[in-house]
Amino acid sequence: MKIRRFLDSKFYIPFVFIISFVSWFLSYISRKGIIDSNLIDFIEYCELIGYGSISLLFLINFKNTYYFIPLFIFIPFMFARPFDAIDIPYCVIIGGVLVAIGLILNYFIYKPKLMFGKFLLGLIVLGIAIILSGIGYKSDNYFIQLIFSFCCVGAFILLYVSISSSASVDFHNIARLFLYLGLFLSLQLIVYYCVQDNILDSFLSKDSNVGWGISNNIALMLLFTMPFALYLATQNRRVLCVLYLLTFILELLCIVFTYSRGAVVAMIIGIIIMIPFIIIEVVNKKTFYISLSTILCFICLFVLIFCFSHKTEAARIFEILTSLDIHNGNGRYEIYKKCLQNLKEYKIFGKGIFSQFNGDNYGNTSYVWGHSTITQTASTMGGFGLLSIFFHFGQKYYVLLKNATNYKMIIFYSFFISGLYGLVDISYYFVNYMIPLVIVMALLEKLMKADSERI
Predict the structure, then answer these.
(1) How far is CA 61 from the centre of its chain?
(2) How many CB atoms lie within 10 A of CB 363?
(3) Is 48 part of a structural domain of the chain?
(4) What is the dihedral of CA 383, 118, 370, 219, to 10 degrees?
(5) What are residue 209's DSSP bridge partners?
(6) Residue 267 within a domain
(7) C-alpha distances in angstroms, 386 versus 125, 352, 392?
């Protein structure tokens, strides 16, 4: 079948990447007022529902659930505007329902043997903590929160079980998928700077916003994707090695120019811990090291020229990257205190995941994140939530490090480096992060099962 051959080819992921990026780009420049088109919102809605419909068709016609994943993985990053849990666009709900129907029908049509996997228990325990969050906290909107939590947890469990049971893909293609996602995010950041009225002024401020997220969100996702680019650079030869290495360096530079200090620190730690992998796993050492040295020399040369020719701007960049208010942690300390106070008052199940809306006013779409996965969990899910997420973390890293292979180490780097950043900002509970995380876990189950069958 021609469609299956295309889906199995190396052109499928780049094709989805291009369509998704063009969609986001048109919507973004429309919202920036660069083009005036009343059709953009309608087109965006049609595209997202179209992605859901195509996913449904793939899931009905093919047993391999991997085929819908490239479509699904880009959807959270196609939005040129932000939204919260209480103002989700209808196209997202419709698209999500279509995918859920497809996953259920895929099971009944092809009847794959269900794989519950090594990560499932941790995900279920964490999901229960999310659903039970806020018990004991009086809120007129608790029922809405309960329904929302139950639907989200159920959707993620369905996604995990369906993919781990019937997806079929090798790690090289998984790495390619996340390389393209990293390139997608990098280009979004570049576009943000290029469409500003004063490019240099915007470049010298920590205000990047690509619609679905701001600088910290972009940095988090790039920390997640960059190990996959490194893997491809170490496993390929000649031209491909150089291209993948350039993509890896581009992602690192984009992390720096989000000006997210926590992300930059996590990136540096990540590079250090990945050095042994590079030394051991690189296939074409000559091409890799010569290319890396050349790229770094050009970057250093450019930095030196820029520092001498634009001293004021260089000083400003250095100031943004190094500035830290010790007295209030750049505003985080007050948030942490409030989260800990919520934990003291609502010790077992927390105050509820919707309680972080300003003033507990659910009509106000301004959501105050806990600026740390741990404090967010403590505030909204209480002691039970903390125990649940620590159990999930322990299970996750134990599975990755037990009988470690090169692909398990790359996934470990991805989870660990982005998780480091999650100590000073949000990673978990941010849906754009959770979707790739759960998908990678599910795909890893299939890879580990294939390995065990070969032994």
Answers:
(1) 28
(2) 9
(3) yes
(4) 160
(5) 214
(6) no
(7) 11, 13, 10
Q: Dig out the tokens for 214 from the structure.
A: 């701001």
Could you tell me the CA-to-CA distances from 228 to 220, 412, 436 in Å, in that order?
A: 14, 11, 13
Beta pairing partners, 214 = 209
SS3 74: helix
Q: What pLDDT shows up at residue 219?
A: 94
Judged by DSSP in three states, 357 sits in strand
Whether 357 has a pLDDT exceeding 80, the answer reads no
pLDDT in tens, 270-307: 999 999 988 888 998 899 999 999 999 999 999 899 88
248 falls in which pLDDT band (50, 70, 90)?
very high
CA distance 25 to 109: 37
Buried b / exposed e across 429-455, counting CB within 10 Å, b at 16+? bbebbbbbbbbbbbbbbbbbeeeeeee
Please say whether the beta carbons of 226 and 252 come within 8 A.
Answer: yes
What are the tokens at 427?
Answer: 């990673």
* Number of domains the chain contains: 1
Residue with tokens 């996934």: 411
The pLDDT tens digits for 18-54 are 999 998 888 888 776 665 556 666 777 788 888 999 9
Per-residue pLDDT of 414-442, as tens digits, reads: 999 999 999 988 889 888 999 999 999 99
What is the C-alpha R_g of the chain?
22
Quote the domain boundaries for residue 41. Answer: 1-112
**132-154: b or e for each residue (b if 16 or more CB lie within 10 Å)?**
bbbeebeeebbeebbebbeebbe
Whether residue 46 lies inside any domain: the answer is yes
Phi, psi of 19 (to 5 degrees): -60, -45
Q: Cα–Cα distance between 179 and 212 in angstroms, integer? A: 19
Q: Cβ–Cβ contacts within 10 Å for residue 361, how many?
A: 10
Asked if residue 233 is part of any domain, the answer here is no
Query: What is the residue-wise DSSP string for 278-336?
Result: HHHH-S-HHHHHHHHHHHHHHHHHHHHHHHHH-HHHHHHHHHHHH---TTTTTTHHHHH
- C-alpha–C-alpha distance, residues 195 and 254, integer Å: 16
Q: CA-CA distance, 121 to 388, in Å (whole number)?
A: 10
